[in-house]
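TL;DR need structure tokens for one chain.
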Amino acid sequence: MRVLSFDTSTEWLTVAAGDGSSWTAHQERAGSANSERILPVVDAVLAEAGWRLADLDGIAFGAGPGAFTGVRIACSVAQGLALGAGVAVVPVPTLLAVAQQAWNEHAAMRVLACLDARMREVYVALYVRGGDEWRTESEPAVMKPAELRVPAGGLWDGAGDGFGAYPELGAHTGVARVFADTLPTARAIGELALAALTSGQGVAPSEALPLYVRHRIALTTSERNAGMRL
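>> reply
TL;DR here they are.
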């Protein structure tokens, strides 16, 4: 089964094409150029893999939470490509992709996934791996860093750029290791999507939607003047 996956929910553009046994991937810090770069990078990754859109069984994207514009870009591109190719779409939570990447890189099994949400907030979720699957211990949420509470009863690996933006989060009792450079990579998204596609969990392009945990997308004038960012 072949899947194309990508994420633009952070400053990084990450694209991958794979079938579970081999992967072709590209990653670059595109920032605001995500919208301009994503389609050329998709074309390049597919070409390197030796595939066409018609060869795919599904398309996956980082559904959020993350940068509002970036999440919308990935969703729109996934919908458009999947509609043209006639394949299913798998929206993958970005925090779950962080957990998957932490497992790939560091064999992390209990992951406190944390991404910088701007506006002096973080996106947070807890995942535990059992066998080849992840169990969600707490759903994605947005909060102030000071509001984060790490559950007792076991050690957690912290992963995601929220730990880079707020290093004090790594000092919480219960956080064993911190991997602040771990991203929601396209390969991690693709790996999660392959499992979903195999079990028939893909959706029609029109049903593929972003995951928002913050419904506010604009700052007040006073907040902008104070240097706050979404």
